[in-house]
Amino acid sequence: MPELFLEIGSEEIPSGYVQPALEYMREELASFFSRNRIKAEAPEILGTPRRLVISVKGVDALQEDIVELFHGPNVSVAYDDQGEPTKAAMGFARGKGLDVSELTRDNTPKGEVVCARVEKKGRPTPDHLNEFLPQFIGNIPFPKKMRWGSRDTSFVRPIHWIVALFGSKPLDFTYEEIPCSDTSRGHRFMSPVFFKVNGFSDYLKSCEKHFIMIDPLVRKKSIHDQVSSLAGEVNGIVVLDQELLEEVNYLVEYPFAV
Predict the structure, then answer these.
(1) What whole-number distance in Å separates Cα of residue 232 and Cα of residue 209?
(2) Quick one: 23 exposed, middle or buried, by C-beta within 10 A (0-12, 13-18, 19+)?
């Protein structure tokens, strides 16, 4: 089944803003799939100061069909004494996109009423994503946002690129004149080049090549291990400050202790 991959690349986001933004992205995207009857696995989030990344595997390519039942006016109102449909029945059917002959009946606590069974065919998932993701990006909450250039909307920092793939193909939307594509960027100083993305697994390999430690847990462990090793060289120990470690973790893409 296809995978959704999204990377929002920007100028450096303040350290304390990154993890809450990623948590929002995970919850909101999971909610989106549920609301729209699209089966998908739980989203996976990763990020650095320059990029917010989310991957969702096992996404259905087509929204599930659904049949909705709508109750209308009472049968005594919907049909006259000769059993012919009244304006009430015809108006109800027309409002649901049906011919009056397609109406059925149902017993309710309020008596027998006419019913409309409306079948909604599922749309392709990429169509939903192209509509939703620009709004999704703009709604990511940050304590402070900014506008830049001539853009009308705001974000925490200027966005420079967006990678958005469904399966191996780029989606088709723009966010404030920034088109999504299949091209990401390496570390700002150690590998300032563009690289293609072909799904999440391919992206992780490319990050290693381009000096991006994309997993916050791996990055945090690297920081702690490097500092501890340096301290050991001078017979010292590290007094762990968890809050400081969290802050530093989201200040760098490729930590190197000195």
Answers:
(1) 29
(2) exposed
Dihedral of CA atoms 40, 217, 47, 21 in degrees, nearest 10, equals 80
- Residues pairing with 108 in the sheet: 111
- The pLDDT score that the predictor gives to residue 133 is 98
Question: By C-alpha distance, which of 253, 172, 168, 161 is closest to 203?
Answer: 168
pLDDT tens-place string over residues 156-180 = 999 999 999 999 899 999 998 899 9
How close are the terminal C-alpha atoms of the chain, in Å? 45
Indicate the residue type of 185: R
CA–CA gap between residue 99 and residue 195 (Å, rounded): 55
Helix, strand or coil, per DSSP, at residue 206: helix
Contact assessment for residue 24 and residue 140, using Cβ atoms and an 8 Å cutoff = yes
For tokens 């989310």, the residue is: 54
195-226 pLDDT, tens per residue? Answer: 999 999 999 999 999 999 999 999 999 999 99
Residue whose C-alpha is closest to residue 163's, from 22, 42, 23, 4: 4
Taking only Cα atoms into account, the Rg of the chain, rounded to an integer number of angstroms, comes to 26
Mapped onto helix, strand or coil, the DSSP state of residue 173 is coil
**218 vs 213: CA distance, rounded Å:** 7
Task: Return the residue matching tokens 């090793």.
Answer: 229
* Other Cβ atoms closer than 10 A to 199: 16
Residue type present at position 99: D
DSSP 71: E
Query: If you average pLDDT over every residue of the chain, what do you get?
Result: 96
CB atoms within 10 A of CB 91: 15
- Pairwise CA distance, residues 248 & 230, whole Å: 17
Q: What gap in Å lies between CA 149 and CA 153, rounded to an integer?
A: 10
